[in-house]
Amino acid sequence: MTEKIALEDLPGVGPATAEKLKEAGFTTIEAVAVASPSELVAAAEIGESTAAKIINSSRQSADVGGFETGDMVLERRKSIQKLTTGSDEFNRLLGGGVETQSITEFYGEFGSGKTQVAHQLAVNTQLPVEHHGLNGSVVIIDTENTFRPERIAHMVEGAAEKLELELETEEFLKRIHVAHAYNSNHQILLVDATSKLAEELKSTEYPVRLLIVDSLTAHFRAEYVGRGTLADRQQKLNKHMHDLMRFSGLNNASVVVTNQVMSKPDAFFGDPTKPIGGHIVGHTSTFRIYLRKSKGEKRIARLVDSPNLPEGEAIFSVTTGGLTD
Ligand code: GTP
Ligand code: MG
């Protein structure tokens, strides 16, 4: 254990700045290490470049990061699989489908289809690999009570028809493990519970291959209101995202999270098409997809951020039988 470093010990942080940071909730260097420059600018009335320097030095002191050699990364990436969305257009946008060993974030307004996509992926994950499934079980961390087994039943029927397979709705429902998260702390703890369940199911016919968190940010948004709580919220979200990332790597699983967009424009966050959670969620999600409503059943998916795919859009439909072109 290294010696505890105080905010005041960071280069560029005088007593007055340290005081302002603490008032805004940035009480430790770990909190500063995972902050964005603009957050510090707003909290401490300092310039962008000073903020960036403070963040950099806090990262070094807090030892945020770690190494893995390129060959290790390559070996790990060889086992990545792609999960079908049910729409060829949508799959193409994603470079084949929703990847394992990644976090894929779907964000958009209410009714844009986030929960529908989540339900569809919960069905598709259970399909055999030759039908672009993952031959696996599913865990859903449901924070808003929007999981509907009836919807799963429709989608299983839809898939059976489309793929000309005999599929048992009952079996599909049995392989979906739903946990209701009562608050953000409970939500974070449920990832540990999911890891335990995944351990139990690891050597069975259907190991856990998909973890859904729907919605990722709703509890955080409701619980952490006010400027002084921002750093605390971001730190918790950051930990949560890293737990999810670790889960996806350890289980070669897809992690799918949903996120709302800002609805109340205010001085700091004016753009109503921006997802909640700021840069913490944005930088930890491997793929970000912005969903919006179009005519009737049509939905537009926009790939906003990806490490190796071009930005672009796809149009798909949400029908009673599920997602389709
Ligand atoms: P919030 O969670 O409120 O932010 O919204 P969301 O993005 O999760 O929206 P959701 O996925 O719940 O989308 C709801 C929409 O999906 C409805 O308004 C319908 O358009 C569509 N939908 C839901 N069920 C069915 C169905 O059985 N058949 C068809 N055709 N469409 C459905
Ligand atoms: Mg929803």
Automatic annotation (TrEMBL):
This protein's record includes keyword Transferase: no
GO terms, molecular function: ATP binding; ATP-dependent DNA damage sensor activity; damaged DNA binding
Domain of life according to the entry: Archaea
Domain RecA family profile: 79-261, 266-325
Pfam families (UniProt xref): HHH_5, Rad51
Membrane-spanning residues: none
Gene Ontology biological process terms, A to Z: DNA recombination; DNA repair
Positions that bind ATP: 108-115
Alphabetic keyword roster: ATP-binding, DNA damage, DNA recombination, DNA-binding, Nucleotide-binding
InterPro entries: AAA+_ATPase, DNA_recomb/repair_RadA, DNA_recomb/repair_RecA-like, DNA_repair_Rad51/TF_NusA_a-hlx, Hlx-hairpin-Hlx_DNA-bd_motif, P-loop_NTPase, Rad51_C, RecA_ATP-bd
Family membership noted in the UniProt record: Belongs to the eukaryotic RecA-like protein family.
Function recorded in the entry: Involved in DNA repair and in homologous recombination. Binds and assemble on single-stranded DNA to form a nucleoprotein filament. Hydrolyzes ATP in a ssDNA-dependent manner and promotes DNA strand exchange between homologous DNA molecules.
Name the record gives this protein: DNA repair and recombination protein RadA
Organism, scientific name: Candidatus Argoarchaeum ethanivorans
